[in-house]
Amino acid sequence: MPRETVDAFHRGGFHLVQPKGRGHRAGMDAMLLASMIDDDRPIRVVDLGAGAGGAGLAVASRLPQAHVTLVERSSEMLAYAKKTLALAENGHLSERVSLIAADVTLTGKARHAAGLLDNAFDHVIMNPPFNDGRDRPTPDSLKAEAHAMQGDLFEDWLRTAGAIVRPGGQLSLIARPQSIGEIIAACGKRLGGIEITLIHPREGESAIRLLLTAIKGSKARLAFRSPLFMHGADSHAFLPQVDDLSNGRLGYARIKNKVS
């Protein structure tokens, strides 16, 4: 049986080589994360913990002037990302996408040596591991590495994000709602102007994800945006806005785009 699949995203706008039956596979989370960059200028984007590259390639697919760097520490997932960039179907994107093999939690000279330089990017996106010790562990080691928290995860990842994004640049992340306190604390004085959207399966159901953006150097107050509902009351189909966001037809712009 094949150990990998080639999956189409953005209605065939790009394709992704992913492990089959194990490891982390990109889906709705990655597509919503990518939609949070709404910037049609020539920009440099870095996807921290990129896996096979789903979110980063979704940015490159929707924004033709974006140059994207995928950062991943797993050699196996990096191999999938390399296969993805080698696909003929991705030829229109591959020249604008590069790979860095590095641990997101590197600091100082080690981080610089890996290619993650201070103030180098306009946007940082991340879908960090969100399972904690109270979650049932998975026997799949590759998936566990992508999903399980280690140490003070948000502090470590947001320290790196705050260092490598330029002043006025944007952090975008997707996470579980239960992590909101840790994320806000980790943003600290590095990243302000936080905007949060809670994602609910349907009206009347509890939130399952949060989308968060923040701006380096902003002193604007935290803002909660209108919730995002994925489905209608009696349907499993995506509502039009969510379908547009997930298929690269729409960007999820910030309310306040300027640093204040």
TrEMBL record:
InterPro entries, per the entry: DNA_methylase_N6_adenine_CS, SAM-dependent_MTases_sf, Small_mtfrase_dom, tRNA_Adenine-N(6)_MTase
Protein name: Methyltransferase
Record keyword Nucleotidyltransferase present: no
GO process annotations (BP): methylation
Pfam families, A to Z: MTS (PF05175)
Keywords, sorted A to Z: Methyltransferase, S-adenosyl-L-methionine, Transferase
Lineage: Bacteria, Pseudomonadati, Pseudomonadota, Alphaproteobacteria, Hyphomicrobiales
GO molecular function: N-methyltransferase activity; nucleic acid binding; S-adenosylmethionine-dependent methyltransferase activity
Residue ranges occupied by any Methyltransferase small domain in the UniProt entry: 31-175
UniProt key word Membrane: no
Species the sequence originates in: Rhizobium oryziradicis
